[in-house]
Amino acid sequence: SDLTLFTPQMSTKFSPDPSEFLPAGHHRVALGVSYNGRHYHGWQRQPHGHISVQEKLEDALTKVADQPIKVMCAGRTDSGVHASAQVVHFDTSANRPLRAWTHGGNMNLPDDIAIQWAHPVSVDFHARFSATARRYRYVIYNHPMRPALMDKEVSWNYRPLDVESMQQAANHLVGKHDFSSFRAAACQANTPVRTIHHLQVIKAGDYIVLDVRANAFLHHMIRNLAGLLMKVGAGDAPSGWALEVLATKDRRASAATAPPYGLYFVNAEYDDRFGLPEQLMGPHFLTPWMNA
């Protein structure tokens, strides 16, 4: 399948005033971060002692900077969800070589979180609001027996899945739509309208990968899409059912939410003028087959 990236025009929704967003004497740094989310309660810092990826990353960077560091990310991930290419930024007055943020940060991080690169960015860069698109992959191990070596790194479906039917259903979901039928009840987005640029179903050995790229996503949107596509692939619903579910704008009309641990945040896209490093999209064990 063709996984060529399409880069839309830069969003104009975020035009910060430098004096408001960057204190005097501070500079802005972007990082590429990967993590295995199985032991964390999602990306966002949590109350009541629940451990998050953000907490661990901020604590590590604070030690390097010798001052408090707060980070903003491109896309918040739920409990159990992974990332191969999360993008974050932070502001600091600490003058450190880029190697200090990567190597020093990694020395203070647990083994399941790693900083991949650091890059200085201008004040008008924002990890969340400057992103023109985001991309996720949902990985299904499609085999009669459950996996052992990648437990909680892939989803598992023991029933044979028809990739062609899944792709036909996925085609109905591409474009600009009201995705209320695929939105979690707790979703806080102002609108359920999103634009899916592509939703591809790719078979790689015993794995089936759902590769989805959109301007933004709703809470649990991809896991709900995955649940519907697996139901179609198992023969429990026709491919046209996806269009019917979309039209209802009712979450109760769709399939069950798929588990979180097959989901990976794999890319955030930005205008070339920011000069962010490119990196191979994950998941790590699929990159030889999926060289995007």
Q: What's this, in brief?
A:
The chain is of the alpha+beta class and about 290 residues long.
What does this structure look like?
It is a single chain. The chain is an alpha+beta fold and 292 residues long. It is built from six helices and ten strands. It has helices at residues 18-21, 53-65, 98-107, 163-171, 221-233, 241-248; strands at 27-35, 71-73, 82-92, 113-121, 133-142, 155-157, 175-178, 193-204, 207-214, 263-269. Helix 2 packs across helix 3. Mean pLDDT is 90; it is low at 1-20.
Give the SSE map:
Elements: H1 18-21, E1 27-35, H2 53-65, E2 71-73, E3 82-92, H3 98-107, E4 113-121, E5 133-142, E6 155-157, H4 163-171, E7 175-178, E8 193-204, E9 207-214, H5 221-233, H6 241-248, E10 263-269
Helix pairs in contact: 2-3, 4-5
